[in-house]
Predict the 3D structure of the following.
Amino acid sequence: MDSAIPEKVLSKENLKKLEDLKNKHVLDIVTDYIRLCKPAKVTVITDSVKDREYVKQIAIDNKEEKKLAMEGHTVHFDGYYDQGRDKEVTKVLVSGNVCVSKAINCGEREECLKEVLGFLDRSMKGKEMLVGFFCLGPTGSKFSIPALQITDSSYVLHSENLLYRSGYGEFRRLKGSDDFFHFVHSAGRLDKNGNSADVANKRIYIDLEGNRVLSVNNQYAGNSIGLKKLALRLAIKKAHQEDWLCEHMFIMGVHPSGKNRVTYFTGAFPSACGKTSTAMIPGQTIIGDDIAYLIADDDGLVRAANVEKGIFGIIQDVNPTDDPIIHKVLTTPRELIFSNILVVDGNPYWLGMGKKLPKKGVNFSGEWHEGKRGEDGNEIPPAHKNARYTIRISELDNADPLAEDPKGAHIQGIIYGGRDSGTSVPVCQSLSWHHGVFMGACLESETTAATVGKEGVRVHNPMANIDFLVVPLGVYIENHIKFGEKIDVPPLIFTTNYFLRGKDGKFLNEKTDKKVWLMWMEGRVHEEFHAIATPVGFIPKYKDLKELFRNIFNKDYKKEEYEEQFSIKAQKLVERFERVKEIYKGEPGIPKIFIDHMAQQIKRLKEAKEKFGKEDISPFEFEENQ
């Protein structure tokens, strides 16, 4: 260790924790950032209970978190202007200023490194640097990727202790190798409330060449927690090089009533589009709710593992009726972190929780009262729309027994879902693997509060992964096509849309209806349901959905409901695919098979529109013509 680092900064005890790893690369990285960030103290966190408890305590001591009335519950508040992922200042660094895709926000590597390292210089002065070790994926498995986190935020490390597997032992197993990711984060200069004061200089830079992410002047977990969406970018690059898939997907086990089987699905949804609530449907089991590694195993099947062991979920609308499992966890004693909610007398409140909210309290704006406005002139809600909870999956009643299985789970279905108020049907099966990749790559969704910017804008979001791509879009799609071709039994691919509205602007489905769509998909995997062929894929027959609604909810599902929900809106779909076609025109290297599917898809829709003489075609009309 560099003699320029005094013992009062890095004690002998903490130095020994680093040296015991016998990894020069780790030692050099930590040394470099101690020199650059100039913390007053460095603490190395291992897998020990003592070290992890230390992180929890200092989060309280330095007021990054505050204890709530219920045992184990704490709350963290991000700054008013630091409430979501910020795409504009999140860049993939490339050499020579040659961006690999217009879908990727790129920055010239040398210029950006100079800038962000300048912001990191002295950024930890007077603060404590925490050095943590984690493992992405189950430890000791073919999915495992060691990850090193350096941060001056105890909230960040506490969150990662809940969300990820301890990896100090995994670093020992590296035997000196540099095959790991590393992440450096600093909240930067703090204001009187303990929030990042220089959010105008917020930077989140992904350095692919260095297998690292540098993040500064922010605290919101989507920007500061290196192992989450930032590690996702590095893993996408690694997956591309090693012929597997790294996806923005949940992994769940589906348990049909009265049948002795479990069918595993993955699902990709943009933020706030029903991803976590799907993974948490009552009666099913969950492996993970956010990021999955998928491999083509030696037995010719797809297997997947959860990168994480916890959930960083959107809390808005979590209530005992729609999300009973999560609601139970959030309202009983255990270790968990709330963020950006409303707190009154030590009790948490959030939007859509199923009861009337207080008219004053403390939230992300400080002392809050009904009608309070921010500096931007906007009325401040009681809790932020992107408020979150952080919990361990093992705390859930429906945690799946394969969650830590080093072999992963056999995946038989893949779901792509978006937020679409007026076009797509609630559930549809692709015509083939290639067509399924095409449908995933054409995913459009309306924006939400989970990202900075306007809400309700249609955004093209292939595989719900566009924000995190670090390889050209054409290469990404080609990887999916080739992945399916080397599998003996590829999963079926489905699309879902829980947000279809009627002419009156009201939602056409209850939130709980997604269980019916899921059971139909599971039945299709096992060839238990016939389906209606349409230009966009296979949709359910009315009689099957009627039976499923009766068996699951004891509900009479009417023909009128079915017809309104599953009519194929041919003209709107043509317009949608034409929009996506224009987006892909400027992308280099788009596979020919994708271009062919685009032409075929539009042709089928136009032919159907001409054949039936209408823009919206009833599912019964398609059924009658088969």
Q: What stands out?
A: The longest helix spans residues 592-612. The CA atoms of residues 75 and 338 lie 5 Å apart. The mean pLDDT is 94. The first strand starts at residue 41 and ends at 45.
